[in-house]
Amino acid sequence: MSIDAVAHIREETERSVAALTSVDPEQSVPTCPDWTADDLLWHLAEVHEFWAAILESGATAEEQVMAIEEGKDARPAERDALLARRASATEALLSQLVARADDEPAWFWYSAVQGVGITRRMQTHEATIHRVDAELTAGRSVTPIPRQIAADGLAHVLEVMWPAGFEWIPDWAETRPVAVVEIAPEGGTARMLEISRWSGTRPRDGKEFDAPVGRLLSEGQAPGDLPRARAAGTAQALDLWAWGREQALAHLEGEEQRVAVQGDSAGIAQLASLIAEGHD
After folding, report:
1. What is the pTM for the complete model shown?
2. What is the C-alpha to C-alpha distance for residues 165 and 90, in angstroms, rounded to an integer?
3. Which pLDDT tens digit goes with each residue over 220-262?
4. Engineered SS bond to 19: which of 64, 75, 89, 138, CB 3.0-4.6 Å?
5. Are residues 125 and 246 in the same domain?
6. Residues 6+ apart with CB under 8 A from 31
7. Which residue range forms the structural domain that includes residue 25?
């Protein structure tokens, strides 16, 4: 990316903190209804702390990652201590990102993409989306997302967030394609997304599962005879929508935006199911 990730992460995180500290610690986060304002503050802190530790340690294996997880300190009970922990965590992450090149080895949770670069990209977009969460929590207008970042945020969902779900499908499950969706950003290149569903009965307890996953069709790959849909809008609208933050579109500074979804009813339903999975 030609994005200044360090500056962007810092700016977005400062906006998040300013918004969250303007409301009661127990204020609900509209886009993450199980979270309070202080839960979101803690999420910012622990995410930055975790990835700073991954980069600093040079972790590349699951065993190293587990050791980092097991060694982390508990969440502070008081807001002042939580804020101090968050500030320290953010500085630690940014220091590591400044010191390291994108091609340096580093563990990431999607096996297809490893290295410092994917952590830089992920944290850029996580900071952006959680800033949106924070502004909505505080009842503020949502600050527009720069077009380059919005376009890359959408690409990150299509290339990383959704396809990673295939790695987490259990061995006992069956997977079947159920729809193909054209994702069409204004002024950008349309991409074809195949939605599948994995389902089955977990052997250990008999629990039934049925969940959507999605990944891009490769160039030249035929979509097959599946229900079709199309989602179109600005890069910003599609970015927020794909991250499960469509409600933010009604609160953007300036003109309200929307994602136009058309197509077969079955294709639209499968797309809605995938979007409803959300991303924390």
Report:
1. 0.95
2. 28
3. 787 889 999 999 999 999 999 999 999 999 999 887 799 999 9
4. 138
5. no
6. 132, 133, 136, 244, 245, 247, 248
7. 5-140
